[in-house]
Amino acid sequence: MKKKSLVIVESPTKAKTIGRILGEGFSVVSSMGHIIDLPQKKLGVVIEKDFEPEYVTLTGRQKVLTEIKKEAKGKAIVYVATDPDREGEAIGWQIKERILKGANILRVTFHEITPAAVKEAFKHPREFDAKMVEAQVGRRVLDRIMGYFLSPLLWKKIARGLSAGRVQSVALRLIVEREREIQKFVPREYWEIEAKLAKGESEFSAKLDKVDAQKAQIAKKEEADNLCGEIRQNKFVVSEIKKSEKKRYAEPPFITSTLQQDAFNKLRFNANKTMFVAQGLYEGIDTGADNPVGLITYMRTDSPRVAPEAINEVRSFISRSFGQEFVPETPNYYKVKKLAQEAHEAIRPTFVSRHPDSLKTFLTPDQQKLYELIYNRFVASQMKPAVYAVTSVIIEAGRYQFNASGSTLTFSGFMAAYNRNGEDEESEKDKEKKNIIPPLEKGDSLELLNLLPSQHFTKSAPRYSDSSLIKALEEDGIGRPSTYAPIIYTLILRDYVRRIKGYLNPTELGFMVCELLVEYFPKIIDVNFTAALEDKLDQIEEGSLGRIKVLQDFYVPFKESLDFAQGNIKKEVITTDEVCAKCGKPMIVKWGRRGKFLSCSGFPECKNSKSITSGVKCPQADCGGELIERRSKRGFFYGCSNFPQCRFTSRTLPEDKE
User: Fold this and answer.
1) Which residue ranges make up each domain of the chain?
2) CB 49: neighbour CB atoms within 10 A?
3) Cβ–Cβ under 8 Å, residues 279 and 271
4) What is the DSSP string of 51-106?
5) What is the pLDDT of residue 491?
């Protein structure tokens, strides 16, 4: 009887899907992610030996390790089919080198879990990519060095349990600096004047643009009112008309960062939720006939490349569903940014024939929404641009010049499948489209129906959302597709940042951590330095730089800053006016697992501590307690100081009615 082959993947869901595709000749097991990694309680890197990593079996993974060894016995070939990225390559390499050393092990990669893609991949197994493994080891070692040495400094100065990291700390700095901009921002009042005009029965709007050929700048209401009084005395005459055609082009199919951005803007999914839902769609959904099958391609990618067969399929679909006039003469190709992993594909549906409507009974509501977003974006990416007829009019009213513009959609193009505007606020372009300009000729007199002065205030830059932070990190060249969601999750977990109404607000603790790192490690958490380091790590994978050289170049200046910080850093003490009820010494602010609290400055001799209340009375009748901010695995909430006698909780702080 022919021996079975063993296939190793990361997750049980993926194992189930691939097992059904490959059939009886294969045994498929899950590694449950990493089995071998750096130790949790020590550095695990021998710096003196060219930064040699000291790998160990992770706690709790011995059972998985034993099962893999047992399954590998007597197998002719062991295939490692972990994810097609650096992380997946490294997981597989560790299995090959440290768990099944000497076995006949080959690497298999595929970017979609469909019968055709998986079977084709197993026809062309390969050796492990040593450069990709080197790049992953370099990243892992670098991140461990930073985290291992920086985190204790935060413990020494602020509180235990805090952490710092290569991308995490730069992301925190962006959030904190944006918050400082908002705090310093002083709104400036300005006014606009809109004219409601008519030509015959047709009405449209125009805005005051210039006064005496100079840009109109109106600071106060009185000034706006005076101008309106003068403007009304003039005749409105068309002085110039311009007609043009504008095209609006489809955007590329999703990569990881753009999927996370659009999922936030359109669906209000945070980055972590987006990746969790996408993982399920990738690993396999039971759709009845094929049960189960991956519905989307691999969701950690920075390449907009699409396989030729997928392009052919979607072009045929567009022709059938929308008409041949929506299909461009040649396929749309999108620019790949420098150092993107071009072997990867964009995030797209594995089969365009699986329309979102046909899968409603098999998907959860969240899966349905995300799949539909991915599906429509991919279809739109291979369609012709939308076309608008644009009319711009300059209108003279004495020394005042008004501008009016309007556009009409003449060909919907890709917008028939996907409208990329997902924000809540109506854009200026959308308002422009609703302003329909009637047929006009140069020299036409217009009837003034009304003048509408309106007050406005300049606005500060908004706080970062998951979407805008990911966009900023990506534009600055910081982090990679797999890092964005975990970074935001860690910032919230450490209570450096809180997500309030979808936006990332730095906490007092976040400010303190950022200030300490900027003071002692300004270069390490500099945006440009971090981007350059990211670039070097990518070059290890290209083979143009050596891992040891990159680590040495980083470590020497880092060690200098570290030594200075360790010798000069002192414990941050925030004193309060409150005195200890037990010994009379001042109470100070500390941070613990459940958040901020008051502790006696005489600790450890006096161990008295107490919660910091919000000052808002508990809304429960006859309770008498005050609400305290508490922390759980689900995040922050407010609970009563009389717990457990009173069990009132709330996610938001109720108004104090007294």
Assistant:
1) 5-128, 137-184+463-568, 189-249+386-457, 256-381, 574-650
2) 9
3) no
4) SEE--EEPTT-HHHHHHHHHHHTT-S-EEE---SSHHHHHHHHHIIIIISTTS-EE
5) 94
Question: How, if at all, do strands 595-600 and 586-592 pair?
Answer: antiparallel
CA distances, 15 to each of 125, 299, 300 (Å): 18, 17, 19
41-61: pLDDT as tens digits: 899 999 999 999 999 998 888
At 589 the pLDDT is 85
User: d(Cα 105, Cα 76) in Å, to the nearest integer?
Assistant: 9
Pairing of strands 105-107, 78-80: parallel
Query: Which tokens in the block code for residue 264?
Result: 């936030």
Dihedral sign (CA 640, 643, 649, 651): positive
CB 273 within 8 A of CB 489: no
pTM: 0.87
**Of 271, 363, 280, 351, nearest to 317 (Cα)?**
351
Cα 173 to Cα 178: distance, rounded to the nearest angstrom: 8
Cβ–Cβ contacts within 10 Å for residue 350, how many?
Answer: 20
Amino acid (1-letter code) at residue 636? F
Can you read off the two tokens belonging to residue 349?
């549906």
Beta bridge partners of 452: 194
Give CA–CA dist 386/429, Å, rounded: 14
334 compared with 632, residue with greater pLDDT: 334
- The one-letter amino acid code at 187 reads P
CATH of domain 189-249+386-457: 2.70.20.10
* Number of other CB atoms surrounding residue 650 within 10 Å: 14
CA–centroid distance for 50 within its chain: 34
Within 10 Å of residue 260's Cβ, how many Cβ atoms? 30
Catalytic one of 55, 79, 282, 298: 298
For the beta carbon of residue 106, count every other beta carbon within 10 angstroms. 18
When pLDDT is cut at 50, 70 and 90, the band that residue 425 belongs to is very low
**C-alpha span between 438 and 481 (Å, rounded):** 48
Determine the straight-line distance between the first and last CA of the chain, rounded to whole angstroms: 82
Q: What is the DSSP letter of 385?
A: P
CATH architecture type of domain 137-184+463-568 = Orthogonal Bundle (1.10)
Beta strands in 532-646 (DSSP E): 574-579, 586-592, 595-600, 609-611, 613-617, 626-632, 635-640
Q: Is-catalytic flag, 388?
A: no
Work out the mean pLDDT of the chain and round it to a whole number. 90
How is 232-267 classified by DSSP, letter by letter? TTSPEEEEEEEEEEEEEPPPPPB-HHHHHHHHHHHH
CATH topology of domain 5-128: Rossmann fold (3.40.50)
Distance CA 9, CA 13 (A): 10
pLDDT digits over 493-528, tens only?
888 999 988 899 999 899 999 999 999 999 989 999
Strands (E), 301-427: 386-397, 400-411
Q: How far apart are CA 153 and CA 569, in angstroms?
A: 8
Instruction: Answer yes or no: CATH 1.10.290.10 is held by domain 256-381.
Output: yes
Let me know: does 402 contact 196? Beta carbons within 8 Å: no
